[in-house]
Amino acid sequence: MAQLVGLIVSENEGFKKQVDRLLRSGPIPVGVTDERIARDGTAPDIVVVDVCGDASSAMSNIERMRGAAPHAGIFAIAQTADPDLILQSMRAGANEFFTWPPIEETFQNAVRRLAARRESTQGARPPATTLVFFGSKGGAGTTTLGVNCAVEVARLSKRSAIILDLKPGLGEVALFLGIRPRFTVLDAVDNLHRLDREFLKELVVKHKSGLDILAGSDQFDRPGAQDAGAFEELFRLLTRQYDYIIIDAGSQINSCTVAALYAADQMFLVANPDVPSVRNAQRLLERVRQLGACGERVRVMLNRAAEPFPIPPKQIESALGHPIHHMFPSDYKTVSTAMNSGVPLSLAGNSDIATQFDAFTRRLLDPTAEVPGAAITKKGLLGLDRIASLW
Ligand SMILES: Nc1ncnc2c1ncn2[C@@H]1O[C@H](COP(=O)(O)OP(=O)(O)O)[C@@H](O)[C@H]1O
Ligand SMILES: [Mg+2]
């Protein structure tokens, strides 16, 4: 699913805040820009116009937005469902009409309809997919999972894919892939105004799997809070140039990782089967819910899952209130050899863990595919007894 771009037209801060949350909390990722049309010229897909105040200025706002973004879905939100106001809004160019406060489900259904329409009318290029990996704690294996998944995505899909390292200070993504980068994510966010296909090509390093790498920052205090808006824009720009965008978001929730979570089609929360990791995962899931980044997009990944489990997977699922999407075995020798040599697991020969990456990625690329050997199910472990025998 592509990320949609939302725009809110209102003078009222309370309205803006609530609509921002509503747009970002649905199952479809929506990036919200402010009233100026985005710097990169991206036209909005959804424009939400405040019709709660003066009707005539609201109507001219709708008309103005209809002219500026002829293909956008315009959502009008008014205090009451006054038939005259509905008619006027529709005539001015609105596609949907809601009363304040909009019912969450009705609003999300309208977003879904719009996304479906957009996909069916978009040209041949399928929409980009953004996959974000974040860890329940440092050392959980977020970079290991992100990097190996990214390589598999590039290798198996044969489509364009990029991995981006969000860690402040020296990130490890490039190191894991045996790459010495000349440029970093900071060069991208500091040059957004000229970040076209050619410039981006200069900044990334191509891995032999076909994956592009945008290396982590080389400054200890960046990316920081001041960079969040630029990163949000960068994530959006990348969806125009790549089919898959994989983000190693580390294990700290800050404004840049939040921007990544909002952009994510799927967020992979990486945890280990131990008490600190599960407790942190619980807290992070709670935080993600508070942020309004939709729970439907979260996938829990259990890394270093090996018998005897300090906490059984079923217990982890009930503690988290979320199914485990995939488990990766513990294999320090294989993982650390791959890491130290800068060769991803799938290119380093056969191993159980490489098979799991293959299975995980095939399912990611085609959720309907039958993947032999995959220890996974739609419902997670709770509905699957077979799982215990696999480890
Ligand atoms: N499945 C695994 N089995 C054994 N060791 C692992 C596994 N996944 C990661 N590791 C090891 O754990 C350490 C931390 O991994 P890393 O991916 O850097 O974690 P994070 O990015 O969450 O900090 C590394 O030494 C790595 O080799
Ligand atoms: Mg890491």
Protein model, in words:
With 391 residues, this protein is an alpha/beta fold. It folds into 2 domains: 4-121, Rossmann fold, CATH 3.40.50.2300; 129-390, 3-Layer(aba) Sandwich (Rossmann fold), CATH 3.40.50. Helices cover 40% and strands 16% of the residues. Strand 4, helix 3 and strand 5 (96-99) form a beta-alpha-beta unit. The protein starts with a strand and ends in a 26-residue tail after the last helix. The relative contact order is 0.12.
What binds here, in terms of ligands, is: adenosine-5'-diphosphate, magnesium ion
What do we call the CATH topology of the largest domain? Rossmann fold
Please, what is the CATH homologous superfamily of the largest domain?
P-loop containing nucleotide triphosphate hydrolases
**Dominant shape:** globular
- Measured as a percent range, the helix fraction is 40-55%
Number of domains: 2
Strand content: 15-25%
Can you write the helix and strand succession as a string? EHEEHEHEHEHEHHHEEHEHEHEHEHH
Tally of alpha and pi helices: 14
Largest pleated sheet = 8 strands, mixed
| CATH-level-2 architecture of the largest domain | 3-Layer(aba) Sandwich
Rounded average pLDDT: 88
Number of strands: 13
